[in-house]
Amino acid sequence: GNIYTGKVKRVLPGMQSAFIDIGQERSAFLHVADIWEGRSNGDEAAKPIEKILYEGQTLLVQVIKEPIGTKGARLSTQISIAGRLLVYLPQESHIGVSQRIEDEAGRELLRNKLQQLLPADHGHGYIIRTVAETATDRELLADIDYLDKLWNSLQEHSKSAPAPALIYQELDI
Question: In the chain, which residues have pLDDT < 50?
């Protein structure tokens, strides 16, 4: 869950992947399927990695799998930040609901409740966590405000921090 500004070390067109320096012992691994800009919307083929990344490029990445043995961490450019009630998806615009909430009417009610709380021009996505089933509007608004401020702070930090740099460290459970 940690977020870094990383620097592209090598682009491997044959594997459709790249190695990214995030300041760890080993370079991290980024596959084209985990690059948000490289995703296909179903109408067209995904862009090849060599048309998206180049050596020396700086980008914001999130660890999706910790390093194991001799392998470095696996990365994604799709950022998600967990709050108490919501998971913030700054590159998305839809609102999802935890799959653990099985009641379809309850899911739709939660989705509508959150949509009404968000400003019309918000434009970012969320996943409503299970714990939010009983949350008040005030609690949801507090989580939205916290996640917005955190994201703005992360973006500012990422602009000024020289790559590679740790931008955000997820809290330990």
Answer: 38, 40, 42-44
